[in-house]
Amino acid sequence: MPTLLHHPLDPSSRIIRLMCAEYGVPLDMEEIKPRLRTPELLELNPAATLPIFMGEDDIAVIGILANIHTIEDLYTPAIVAGLIPAEPSPRAEMWRLIEMGHLQAQ
Prior knowledge:
With 106 residues, the protein is of the alpha+beta class. It has a single domain (3-81), classed as 3-Layer(aba) Sandwich (Glutaredoxin). It has helices at 11-23, 39-44, 64-75, 88-105; strands at residues 3-6, 28-31, 52-54, 60-62. It has a 4-stranded mixed beta sheet, covered by helices on one side. A hairpin with a 5-residue loop joins strand 3 and strand 4 (60-62). Helix 1 (11-23) runs parallel beside helix 3 (64-75). The longest helix has 18 residues, at 88-105. It is globular and about 40 Å long. It starts with a strand and ends with a helix. 16% of the residues are buried.
């Protein structure tokens, strides 16, 4: 089962939790306090940022955009088109909105 290293108040982590819930991806969730900069966190990600998605291959996927792509590629249910639009213009707007939300959260 995949593991999500997250913090409940982190907006990027919240997006990944919602995406996994929408797709029905079962997750082991491990709450991390990135401000503590634990050795375990720094070993995975020296920048100590979240979210970190650990798939069944135990490779750490770090950052919001990498997580969105990974979950979309691995878990998009056959009954939905996915959260990333197939058409270029709507897809560009989606990325703009994600970037704006991420910049505002910082």
